[in-house]
């Protein structure tokens, strides 16, 4: 979310065989499919390229959990290209 309240578009992941033209044309929703190996972070990279990059402001902060698929080195390099700083919340810090 931007400081002015603007939110990123929802990113919905569905099985590849269910991706149809009707689903990809829903206004304001970005559809991802799980044909790529999500365990290698490809869905995260897809989200960055389809959703995050449309947040056009001068500098961005992306806060992630410490899931190894969210924070590989190639992701950090790609985010740097988009003028984004990544901050990682250490494991176990999400719970009350």
Write up what this structure looks like.
There is one protein chain. The protein is built from 3 helices and 4 strands. The chain is α/β, with parallel strands linked by helices. It has one domain (11-88). The strands form 2 sheets. Strands 1-2 form a two-stranded parallel sheet. A two-stranded parallel ribbon has the order 3-4. β1 (11-14), α1 (21-24) and β2 form a beta-alpha-beta unit.
How are the secondary structure elements laid out?
Layout: E1 11-14, H1 21-24, E2 30-33, H2 42-50, E3 60-64, H3 73-81, E4 84-88
Parallel strand pairs: 1-2, 3-4
Describe this protein with a few key phrases.
96 residues; alpha/beta; two-stranded parallel sheet
Would you kindly provide a brief summary of this structure?
With 96 residues, this protein is an alpha/beta fold. Helices cover 23% and strands 19% of the residues.
Number of domain units: 1
User: Strand arrangement, largest sheet?
Assistant: 1-2
Number of helical stretches of at least 4 residues:
3
Average predicted confidence as pLDDT:
76
Strand content: 15-25%
Low-confidence stretches: none
Q: How would you sum up the global shape?
A: globular
The string of secondary-structure elements, in order, is EHEHEHE
Give the structural class: alpha/beta
Number of strands: 4
Rg over alpha carbons = 14 Å
Distance from first to last alpha carbon:
23 Å
Q: Which sheet architecture does the biggest sheet show?
A: 2 strands, parallel
- Helicity, as a percent range: 10-25%
């Amino acid at each position: 979310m931007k400081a002015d309240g603007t939110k990123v578009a929802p990113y919905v992941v569905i099985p590849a065989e269910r991706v149809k033209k009707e689903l990809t044309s829903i206004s304001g929703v970005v559809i991802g499919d799980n044909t790529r190996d999500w365990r290698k972070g490809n869905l995260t990279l897809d989200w960055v390229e389809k959703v995050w990059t449309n947040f056009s402001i001068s500098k961005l902060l992306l806060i992630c959990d410490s899931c190894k698929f969210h924070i590989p080195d190639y992701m950090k390099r790609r985010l740097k290209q988009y003028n984004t700083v990544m901050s990682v919340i250490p494991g176990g810090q999400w719970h009350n």
